Amino acid sequence: MALLAACVLAHAHKPSDSYLGLKVEAGRVHGQWDIALRDLEFAVGLDANGDGEITWGELSARHANIASYALARLQVAAGDAGCPLRATDHLVDQHSDGAYAVIRFEAACPGQPEKITLGYSLFFDLDPTHRGLARIEIGGGTQTAVFSPERRVQHFDMAAPSVWRQIAAYAREGVWHIWIGYDHILFLLSLLLPSVWVREADAWRPAPRFGPAFWEVFRVVTAFTIAHSITLSIAALEIVTLPSRLVESVIAASVLLAALNNPFPLVSARRWAIAFSFGLVHGFGFASVLSDLGLPRGALVSSLFGFNLGVELGQLAIVSAFLPIAYALRNTWFYARIVFAGGSIVIALLAAIWLTERALNITILA
Asked: Are residues 156 and 80 in the same domain?
Protein backbone atom coordinates (compact mmCIF):
# COMPACT_ATOMS: atom_id res chain seq x y z
CA MET A 1 0.00 0.00 0.00
CA ALA A 2 2.92 2.34 0.75
CA LEU A 3 4.34 1.58 -2.70
CA LEU A 4 1.00 2.36 -4.35
CA ALA A 5 0.81 5.66 -2.49
CA ALA A 6 4.28 6.57 -3.69
CA CYS A 7 3.48 5.57 -7.26
CA VAL A 8 0.47 7.88 -7.38
CA LEU A 9 2.96 10.74 -7.13
CA ALA A 10 5.11 9.36 -9.95
CA HIS A 11 4.67 10.43 -13.55
CA ALA A 12 5.13 8.48 -16.73
CA HIS A 13 8.60 9.72 -17.51
CA LYS A 14 11.75 8.38 -15.95
CA PRO A 15 13.18 9.99 -12.80
CA SER A 16 15.67 12.84 -13.01
CA ASP A 17 19.03 11.71 -14.38
CA SER A 18 22.08 13.36 -15.86
CA TYR A 19 24.74 11.67 -17.98
CA LEU A 20 28.38 12.38 -17.25
CA GLY A 21 31.14 11.08 -19.48
CA LEU A 22 34.83 11.51 -18.64
CA LYS A 23 38.01 10.50 -20.43
CA VAL A 24 41.15 10.63 -18.32
CA GLU A 25 44.54 10.41 -20.03
CA ALA A 26 48.02 11.95 -19.68
CA GLY A 27 47.05 14.18 -16.80
CA ARG A 28 44.08 15.71 -18.60
CA VAL A 29 40.36 15.20 -18.22
CA HIS A 30 37.92 15.68 -21.09
CA GLY A 31 34.24 15.53 -20.19
CA GLN A 32 30.71 15.83 -21.48
CA TRP A 33 27.71 16.36 -19.23
CA ASP A 34 24.12 15.97 -20.48
CA ILE A 35 21.59 17.63 -18.16
CA ALA A 36 17.81 17.69 -18.74
CA LEU A 37 16.42 21.09 -19.69
CA ARG A 38 13.39 20.49 -17.46
CA ASP A 39 15.71 20.14 -14.45
CA LEU A 40 17.76 23.21 -15.39
CA GLU A 41 14.58 25.23 -15.87
CA PHE A 42 13.59 24.44 -12.30
CA ALA A 43 17.08 25.17 -10.95
CA VAL A 44 18.25 28.25 -12.87
CA GLY A 45 15.33 29.30 -15.08
CA LEU A 46 15.56 29.07 -18.87
CA ASP A 47 12.11 30.02 -20.20
CA ALA A 48 12.61 33.79 -20.34
CA ASN A 49 9.19 34.66 -21.79
CA GLY A 50 7.25 32.07 -19.80
CA ASP A 51 5.56 30.48 -22.81
CA GLY A 52 6.37 26.93 -21.73
CA GLU A 53 8.87 26.39 -24.56
CA ILE A 54 12.66 26.68 -24.26
CA THR A 55 14.23 27.97 -27.48
CA TRP A 56 17.88 27.78 -28.51
CA GLY A 57 18.09 31.55 -28.03
CA GLU A 58 16.85 31.28 -24.46
CA LEU A 59 19.22 28.40 -23.78
CA SER A 60 22.28 30.07 -25.31
CA ALA A 61 21.62 33.23 -23.31
CA ARG A 62 21.99 31.16 -20.14
CA HIS A 63 25.04 29.09 -21.15
CA ALA A 64 27.36 30.86 -18.70
CA ASN A 65 24.85 30.44 -15.86
CA ILE A 66 24.32 26.75 -16.67
CA ALA A 67 28.06 26.05 -16.76
CA SER A 68 28.64 27.97 -13.53
CA TYR A 69 25.78 26.19 -11.76
CA ALA A 70 26.69 22.69 -12.96
CA LEU A 71 30.48 22.75 -12.75
CA ALA A 72 30.31 24.15 -9.22
CA ARG A 73 28.59 20.88 -8.32
CA LEU A 74 31.21 18.59 -9.83
CA GLN A 75 34.65 18.16 -8.32
CA VAL A 76 37.48 16.22 -9.95
CA ALA A 77 40.63 15.44 -7.96
CA ALA A 78 43.80 13.55 -8.89
CA GLY A 79 45.16 12.14 -5.67
CA ASP A 80 44.98 15.03 -3.19
CA ALA A 81 45.10 17.77 -5.82
CA GLY A 82 42.00 19.31 -7.37
CA CYS A 83 41.53 19.64 -11.13
CA PRO A 84 39.75 22.94 -11.96
CA LEU A 85 37.06 22.49 -14.61
CA ARG A 86 36.58 24.79 -17.60
CA ALA A 87 33.63 24.70 -20.00
CA THR A 88 34.69 24.49 -23.64
CA ASP A 89 31.45 24.12 -25.59
CA HIS A 90 27.65 24.09 -25.25
CA LEU A 91 25.28 21.94 -27.30
CA VAL A 92 21.80 20.46 -27.04
CA ASP A 93 20.80 16.83 -27.53
CA GLN A 94 17.68 14.69 -27.45
CA HIS A 95 17.28 11.76 -25.07
CA SER A 96 14.32 9.41 -24.78
CA ASP A 97 12.67 11.70 -22.22
CA GLY A 98 13.29 15.09 -23.83
CA ALA A 99 15.91 17.72 -24.59
CA TYR A 100 19.19 17.97 -22.69
CA ALA A 101 21.77 20.73 -22.43
CA VAL A 102 25.25 19.41 -23.21
CA ILE A 103 28.28 20.92 -21.50
CA ARG A 104 31.71 19.95 -22.75
CA PHE A 105 34.58 20.70 -20.39
CA GLU A 106 38.18 19.89 -19.64
CA ALA A 107 40.64 20.01 -16.75
CA ALA A 108 44.34 19.62 -16.18
CA CYS A 109 45.42 17.33 -13.34
CA PRO A 110 48.93 17.50 -11.84
CA GLY A 111 51.23 14.50 -11.97
CA GLN A 112 50.29 10.90 -12.72
CA PRO A 113 47.83 9.94 -9.98
CA GLU A 114 46.90 6.37 -9.16
CA LYS A 115 43.31 7.33 -8.40
CA ILE A 116 40.74 9.88 -9.61
CA THR A 117 38.09 11.14 -7.18
CA LEU A 118 34.75 12.57 -8.32
CA GLY A 119 32.40 14.60 -6.15
CA TYR A 120 28.87 15.08 -7.51
CA SER A 121 26.06 17.14 -5.96
CA LEU A 122 23.92 18.32 -8.88
CA PHE A 123 20.24 18.89 -7.93
CA PHE A 124 20.52 16.91 -4.68
CA ASP A 125 19.31 19.96 -2.73
CA LEU A 126 16.25 20.20 -5.01
CA ASP A 127 15.49 16.56 -5.81
CA PRO A 128 16.89 13.78 -3.60
CA THR A 129 15.79 11.17 -6.19
CA HIS A 130 18.11 12.64 -8.82
CA ARG A 131 20.91 10.36 -10.01
CA GLY A 132 24.09 11.09 -11.90
CA LEU A 133 25.02 8.30 -14.32
CA ALA A 134 28.76 8.45 -14.94
CA ARG A 135 30.94 6.65 -17.44
CA ILE A 136 34.69 7.07 -17.00
CA GLU A 137 37.29 5.95 -19.53
CA ILE A 138 40.39 5.51 -17.44
CA GLY A 139 43.43 3.25 -17.35
CA GLY A 140 42.59 1.61 -20.66
CA GLY A 141 39.13 0.51 -19.49
CA THR A 142 35.68 1.87 -18.79
CA GLN A 143 34.22 2.24 -15.33
CA THR A 144 30.69 3.30 -14.42
CA ALA A 145 29.06 4.81 -11.36
CA VAL A 146 25.74 6.18 -10.16
CA PHE A 147 25.91 9.23 -7.91
CA SER A 148 23.19 9.75 -5.32
CA PRO A 149 22.82 11.78 -2.11
CA GLU A 150 24.20 8.75 -0.27
CA ARG A 151 27.08 8.29 -2.73
CA ARG A 152 28.25 11.80 -3.59
CA VAL A 153 31.98 11.02 -3.65
CA GLN A 154 33.46 8.02 -5.46
CA HIS A 155 36.99 6.91 -6.30
CA PHE A 156 38.26 5.34 -9.51
CA ASP A 157 41.58 3.54 -9.89
CA MET A 158 43.71 4.24 -12.93
CA ALA A 159 44.12 0.48 -13.31
CA ALA A 160 41.34 -1.32 -15.19
CA PRO A 161 38.72 -2.78 -12.83
CA SER A 162 38.47 -6.51 -12.28
CA VAL A 163 35.66 -8.51 -13.83
CA TRP A 164 34.06 -9.04 -10.41
CA ARG A 165 34.12 -5.31 -9.64
CA GLN A 166 32.51 -4.64 -13.02
CA ILE A 167 29.77 -7.20 -12.30
CA ALA A 168 29.20 -5.80 -8.81
CA ALA A 169 28.99 -2.22 -10.12
CA TYR A 170 26.39 -3.07 -12.75
CA ALA A 171 24.47 -5.32 -10.34
CA ARG A 172 24.10 -2.32 -8.03
CA GLU A 173 22.63 -0.28 -10.88
CA GLY A 174 20.26 -3.13 -11.80
CA VAL A 175 18.88 -3.25 -8.25
CA TRP A 176 18.43 0.52 -8.17
CA HIS A 177 16.68 0.71 -11.53
CA ILE A 178 14.16 -2.03 -10.78
CA TRP A 179 13.29 -0.25 -7.53
CA ILE A 180 12.64 3.06 -9.28
CA GLY A 181 10.90 1.40 -12.24
CA TYR A 182 7.36 1.87 -10.95
CA ASP A 183 5.75 0.52 -14.11
CA HIS A 184 7.76 -2.71 -13.95
CA ILE A 185 7.00 -3.13 -10.24
CA LEU A 186 3.28 -2.51 -10.67
CA PHE A 187 3.07 -4.95 -13.57
CA LEU A 188 4.66 -7.62 -11.39
CA LEU A 189 2.43 -6.79 -8.43
CA SER A 190 -0.67 -6.95 -10.65
CA LEU A 191 0.25 -10.53 -11.51
CA LEU A 192 1.11 -11.39 -7.91
CA LEU A 193 -2.05 -10.02 -6.24
CA PRO A 194 -4.20 -13.08 -7.11
CA SER A 195 -1.36 -15.55 -6.46
CA VAL A 196 -2.60 -16.23 -2.90
CA TRP A 197 -6.06 -17.06 -4.23
CA VAL A 198 -7.47 -19.72 -6.54
CA ARG A 199 -10.21 -19.31 -9.13
CA GLU A 200 -13.20 -21.57 -8.43
CA ALA A 201 -16.76 -21.32 -9.77
CA ASP A 202 -16.03 -17.93 -11.37
CA ALA A 203 -14.88 -16.46 -8.06
CA TRP A 204 -11.58 -15.84 -6.29
CA ARG A 205 -11.12 -17.89 -3.11
CA PRO A 206 -8.19 -17.94 -0.64
CA ALA A 207 -5.58 -20.59 -1.38
CA PRO A 208 -5.89 -23.40 1.19
CA ARG A 209 -2.12 -23.93 1.46
CA PHE A 210 1.06 -21.91 0.99
CA GLY A 211 2.55 -24.41 -1.48
CA PRO A 212 0.25 -23.66 -4.44
CA ALA A 213 0.63 -19.92 -3.86
CA PHE A 214 4.42 -20.23 -3.80
CA TRP A 215 4.58 -22.23 -7.01
CA GLU A 216 2.18 -19.82 -8.74
CA VAL A 217 4.51 -16.94 -7.83
CA PHE A 218 7.50 -19.01 -8.92
CA ARG A 219 6.01 -19.62 -12.36
CA VAL A 220 5.02 -15.98 -12.86
CA VAL A 221 8.36 -14.55 -11.72
CA THR A 222 10.38 -17.13 -13.66
CA ALA A 223 8.47 -16.43 -16.87
CA PHE A 224 8.84 -12.67 -16.43
CA THR A 225 12.57 -13.06 -15.67
CA ILE A 226 13.32 -15.27 -18.66
CA ALA A 227 11.38 -13.03 -21.03
CA HIS A 228 12.89 -9.69 -20.05
CA SER A 229 16.36 -11.25 -19.83
CA ILE A 230 16.07 -12.29 -23.47
CA THR A 231 15.06 -8.90 -24.82
CA LEU A 232 17.32 -6.98 -22.42
CA SER A 233 20.28 -8.88 -23.86
CA ILE A 234 19.42 -8.56 -27.54
CA ALA A 235 18.52 -4.87 -27.18
CA ALA A 236 21.58 -3.98 -25.08
CA LEU A 237 23.79 -5.71 -27.67
CA GLU A 238 21.93 -3.74 -30.40
CA ILE A 239 20.75 -6.87 -32.18
CA VAL A 240 17.17 -5.55 -32.09
CA THR A 241 16.12 -2.03 -31.12
CA LEU A 242 12.63 -0.53 -30.87
CA PRO A 243 11.49 3.10 -30.56
CA SER A 244 11.48 4.18 -26.91
CA ARG A 245 8.04 5.78 -27.15
CA LEU A 246 6.51 2.57 -28.51
CA VAL A 247 8.17 0.42 -25.85
CA GLU A 248 7.12 2.68 -22.98
CA SER A 249 3.55 2.88 -24.28
CA VAL A 250 3.24 -0.91 -24.55
CA ILE A 251 4.70 -1.29 -21.04
CA ALA A 252 2.01 1.05 -19.71
CA ALA A 253 -0.63 -0.93 -21.61
CA SER A 254 0.68 -4.17 -20.08
CA VAL A 255 0.31 -2.73 -16.58
CA LEU A 256 -3.24 -1.61 -17.38
CA LEU A 257 -4.31 -4.98 -18.78
CA ALA A 258 -2.68 -6.99 -15.99
CA ALA A 259 -4.38 -4.85 -13.33
CA LEU A 260 -7.82 -5.01 -14.97
CA ASN A 261 -7.51 -8.77 -15.32
CA ASN A 262 -7.77 -9.09 -11.52
CA PRO A 263 -11.27 -7.70 -10.85
CA PHE A 264 -12.48 -8.60 -14.37
CA PRO A 265 -10.58 -11.82 -15.15
CA LEU A 266 -10.29 -12.88 -18.76
CA VAL A 267 -7.23 -15.01 -18.04
CA SER A 268 -7.20 -16.70 -14.64
CA ALA A 269 -5.02 -19.69 -15.49
CA ARG A 270 -1.51 -19.76 -16.94
CA ARG A 271 -0.81 -16.20 -15.88
CA TRP A 272 2.83 -17.07 -16.38
CA ALA A 273 2.11 -16.80 -20.12
CA ILE A 274 0.99 -13.19 -19.62
CA ALA A 275 4.12 -12.52 -17.60
CA PHE A 276 6.30 -13.98 -20.36
CA SER A 277 4.55 -12.20 -23.24
CA PHE A 278 4.67 -8.74 -21.73
CA GLY A 279 8.03 -9.45 -20.08
CA LEU A 280 9.55 -9.42 -23.56
CA VAL A 281 8.51 -5.78 -23.91
CA HIS A 282 9.66 -4.87 -20.40
CA GLY A 283 13.12 -6.14 -21.34
CA PHE A 284 13.39 -3.41 -23.97
CA GLY A 285 12.54 -0.90 -21.24
CA PHE A 286 15.36 -2.19 -19.03
CA ALA A 287 17.70 -2.03 -22.04
CA SER A 288 17.03 1.69 -22.53
CA VAL A 289 18.25 2.30 -18.97
CA LEU A 290 21.34 0.19 -19.58
CA SER A 291 22.14 2.00 -22.83
CA ASP A 292 21.92 5.33 -21.00
CA LEU A 293 24.31 4.02 -18.37
CA GLY A 294 26.63 2.66 -21.04
CA LEU A 295 28.08 -0.77 -21.70
CA PRO A 296 31.89 -0.86 -21.79
CA ARG A 297 32.93 -2.54 -25.03
CA GLY A 298 35.74 -4.37 -23.28
CA ALA A 299 33.43 -6.01 -20.75
CA LEU A 300 30.09 -6.48 -22.51
CA VAL A 301 29.23 -9.90 -21.13
CA SER A 302 30.20 -9.22 -17.50
CA SER A 303 28.45 -5.82 -17.44
CA LEU A 304 25.27 -7.18 -19.02
CA PHE A 305 25.30 -10.15 -16.65
CA GLY A 306 25.81 -7.88 -13.64
CA PHE A 307 22.98 -5.51 -14.59
CA ASN A 308 20.56 -8.38 -15.23
CA LEU A 309 21.59 -10.01 -11.96
CA GLY A 310 20.86 -6.77 -10.13
CA VAL A 311 17.42 -6.52 -11.75
CA GLU A 312 16.62 -10.05 -10.59
CA LEU A 313 17.88 -9.42 -7.06
CA GLY A 314 15.78 -6.27 -6.79
CA GLN A 315 12.78 -8.14 -8.13
CA LEU A 316 13.36 -11.01 -5.70
CA ALA A 317 13.45 -8.60 -2.77
CA ILE A 318 10.04 -7.21 -3.77
CA VAL A 319 8.51 -10.67 -4.16
CA SER A 320 10.01 -11.87 -0.87
CA ALA A 321 8.43 -8.94 0.95
CA PHE A 322 5.07 -9.29 -0.80
CA LEU A 323 4.26 -12.99 -0.70
CA PRO A 324 4.34 -13.74 3.07
CA ILE A 325 2.24 -10.66 3.87
CA ALA A 326 -0.26 -11.36 1.11
CA TYR A 327 -0.62 -14.99 2.20
CA ALA A 328 -1.16 -13.98 5.84
CA LEU A 329 -3.90 -11.50 4.82
CA ARG A 330 -5.55 -13.56 2.08
CA ASN A 331 -8.64 -14.45 4.20
CA THR A 332 -9.30 -10.87 5.34
CA TRP A 333 -11.74 -8.27 4.09
CA PHE A 334 -8.81 -5.82 3.97
CA TYR A 335 -6.93 -7.89 1.41
CA ALA A 336 -10.02 -8.66 -0.68
CA ARG A 337 -11.45 -5.13 -0.84
CA ILE A 338 -8.53 -2.77 -0.24
CA VAL A 339 -5.41 -4.55 -1.46
CA PHE A 340 -6.75 -6.77 -4.26
CA ALA A 341 -9.72 -4.82 -5.63
CA GLY A 342 -8.67 -1.32 -4.59
CA GLY A 343 -5.02 -1.86 -5.45
CA SER A 344 -5.85 -3.26 -8.88
CA ILE A 345 -8.10 -0.29 -9.70
CA VAL A 346 -5.49 2.24 -8.54
CA ILE A 347 -2.81 0.51 -10.61
CA ALA A 348 -5.14 0.45 -13.64
CA LEU A 349 -5.92 4.17 -13.32
CA LEU A 350 -2.28 5.08 -12.96
CA ALA A 351 -1.34 2.89 -15.94
CA ALA A 352 -4.10 4.48 -18.03
CA ILE A 353 -2.61 7.92 -17.30
CA TRP A 354 0.87 6.65 -18.17
CA LEU A 355 -0.42 5.16 -21.42
CA THR A 356 -2.10 8.43 -22.39
CA GLU A 357 1.00 10.45 -21.59
CA ARG A 358 3.37 8.16 -23.44
CA ALA A 359 1.22 7.52 -26.49
CA LEU A 360 0.26 11.18 -26.98
CA ASN A 361 3.50 12.67 -25.63
CA ILE A 362 1.69 14.90 -23.14
CA THR A 363 2.00 15.50 -19.40
CA ILE A 364 -0.94 14.86 -17.07
CA LEU A 365 0.80 14.07 -13.77
CA ALA A 366 3.30 16.86 -13.05
From this structure: yes
